[in-house]
Amino acid sequence: MLSLNFLCVFITIFGFVYSIEECKNVSEIYKFHLGTKTPYRFVANTMPERMDYPGCEPQKLWFLVRHGTRTPSIDLIENMKERLPEIRDLILENNPKPSERLRNSDLYALRKWKLKIDSTKEKILAHEGEDEMIDLAERLQMRFPSLLPSTYSNTTYYFKYTKSQRTKASAKYFAAGLFGRQSVRDVWYPTPSKKDPVLRFYKLCSKWKDEVKDNPESVREKQLFENSSHMLKAIEAMNYELKFKDNQRLSLEDVHLIYMTCAFETAWYRKNKSPWCSALTSEVAKVMEFTEDLKYYYRDGYGYEITYKQACVTFNDMLNHLESTSQYPKSTVYYTHSGTLLKMLSHMGLYNDSKPLTHKDFDQSGNKWRVSKIDSFGTNLGFILYRCDQKYKVLTLHQEHVVHLPSCEEELCDLDQIKEHYNDSIHECEFDEMCSNNENDL
Ligand SMILES: *[C@@H]1O[C@H](CO)[C@@H](O)[C@H](O)[C@H]1NC(C)=O
Ligand SMILES: *[C@@H]1O[C@H](CO)[C@@H](O)[C@H](O)[C@H]1NC(C)=O
Ligand SMILES: *[C@@H]1O[C@H](CO)[C@@H](O)[C@H](O)[C@H]1NC(C)=O
Ligand SMILES: *[C@@H]1O[C@H](CO)[C@@H](O)[C@H](O)[C@H]1NC(C)=O
Ligand SMILES: *[C@@H]1O[C@H](CO)[C@@H](O)[C@H](O)[C@H]1NC(C)=O
Questions:
Q1: Closest residue (by CA) to atom 10 of ligand 5?
Q2: Confidence label for 25 from pLDDT (cuts 50, 70 and 90)
Q3: Ligand 3 atom with minimal separation from the 220 CA
Q4: Are 219 and 288 in contact (CB under 8 A)?
Q5: What is the 3 state secondary structure string of 100-121?
Q6: Residue nearest atom 12 of ligand 3, based on CA coordinates
Q7: Cα-flanking dihedrals φ and ψ of residue 100, to 5°?
Q8: How confident is the model at residue 13 (pLDDT cuts 50, 70, 90)?
Q9: Ligand 5 mean position to 415 CA, how many Å?
Q10: Ligand closest in space to the Cα of 103
């Protein structure tokens, strides 16, 4: 047992990019396949050790943060309210006695289950999301005390969020983590906008909207996978295991609804297992996760060039902050959305598989592009500038783990090397031009 735990911790520290698979508890496999609804605690580096490099002094910090765990969209809440009670009754009817598959505690929890969210509370930061932001801020402050002082100052810090409750609340709880709850009201924020050119640039990009977001072709690989034998067999097996009769069969939509509910409830409640996770099979969790991998690969990832190319505006904002000759602000933190984080990760060339992801690549261990790991709630990507003698170097953190940029072997990457590798991002970033923006369009 001891060695197992040790292996688990070891892998969590050093193997984040490679696999969290090894340290799973067999009955909790589903936890590692929750896609973009994965809570941050499953992927975070929670060791708040100082990130000191001999001879180097941290100078500036820039972070992009996805809002923490939230409540579902109104459509999903409505579906949950309508369909889940029907499915619950069928499961209970078909499984009157406990079994290996559905234990007494599972059936009890299912019988007692009620949706604790109503439609007026859509897409708001959940309690877990508040904790995620407080904890993230506290750990970052322990690592970089000189860049994240515990007394707020309008000159030291620059914070900004998009126009949404969940990013605004994320900013508030992050500030509570840094300065304490009493001081959060002192923090100044610029007026948020829905289509912020740095925080949510894609909302301003006509070409991305036409070529990607509104293009049915962009969901083709996802649909092909939904029709694949992997998917059909997984749904079939779940129906069989839950003893559903032919005229009761759970559809793809039903199974997806169960998966989403399992994911959200796992994120919301640290202690109690959602009964919908008990109903799910691990194979279904895996195919659902891969469906998300495909969906986001083609919408926010490497699938189309314009998607990640346009993120040069955010990349340049980061570089300008790090390179600014002014000492202030020392730290810039942006609270934004999954779509921004994934496009920025792709712009940096991170988690780029050697060939495009397709419906044929259902292979949990081989793919780098796995949204459960790279795009959980609270996902964050940070760049920290160090001065080492006369040289400037940059540390890159994703989910608080050190990551190596494609051009760099070392943890601290030469700033000049970064500027050379991303030369096009710097010199060819005509946003309106690459987005084919017409003044009339926007
Ligand atoms: C695995 O998880 C189950 C259910 O949460 C728990 O009862 C069991 O003790 C865990 N086993 C190990 C080895 O951690
Ligand atoms: C500081 O706060 C004020 C509002 O109180 C704001 O107008 C100003 O732009 C802020 N930023 C800096 C860097 O002073
Ligand atoms: C999936 O299968 C359905 C039913 O056979 C079919 O109508 C649909 O066109 C298929 N979708 C794709 C993307 O192949
Ligand atoms: C992703 O990887 C492919 C294959 O190695 C490479 O051709 C492509 O340039 C990479 N994309 C980015 C944005 O780095
Ligand atoms: C960077 O790009 C500019 C403009 O495209 C070009 O003039 C310059 O030579 C490039 N520098 C490097 C190091 O590739």
A1: 423
A2: low
A3: 13
A4: no
A5: CCCCHHHHHHHHHCCCCCCHHH
A6: 224
A7: -60, -40
A8: very low
A9: 16
A10: 1
How distant, in Å, are the alpha carbons of 252, 254, 338 from that of 111?
A: 23, 18, 34
The tens digit of pLDDT for each residue in 150-177 reads: 999 999 999 999 999 999 999 999 999 9
In whole angstroms, give the CA distance from residue 195 to residue 179.
29
Residues 6+ apart with CB under 8 A from 194: 162, 163, 164, 200, 203
Phi and psi for 380 in degrees, rounded to 5?
-140, 145
Whether 328 lines ligand 2, by a CB cut-off of 6 Å, is no
Name every protein residue with a CB atom under 6 angstroms from any ligand 1 atom: 25, 27-28
Domains of the chain by residue range: 27-441
- For tokens 């990349």, the residue is 315
Summarised one tens digit per residue, pLDDT across range 33-78 is 999 999 999 999 999 888 899 999 999 999 999 999 999 999 999 9
Tens of pLDDT, residue by residue over 234-284, are 999 999 999 999 999 999 999 999 999 999 999 999 999 999 999 999 999
- Its pTM stands at 0.92
CB 420 near ligand 5, within 6 Å:
yes
pLDDT for the residue 223: 98
In this structure, the residue with its CA closest to atom 13 of ligand 2 is 155
348 CA from centroid of ligand 4 (Å): 10
What is the mean predicted confidence (pLDDT) over 406-411?
92
Give the ligand with the smallest distance to the CA of 277: 1
Could you say which architecture CATH assigns to the domain 27-441? 3-Layer(aba) Sandwich (3.40)
**Cβ atoms of residues 265 and 276 within 8 Å:** yes
Of the candidates 73, 38, 129, 64, which has an alpha carbon nearest to the alpha carbon of residue 342?
A: 64
SS3 4: helix
Q: Whose CA is nearest to atom 3 of ligand 4?
A: 354
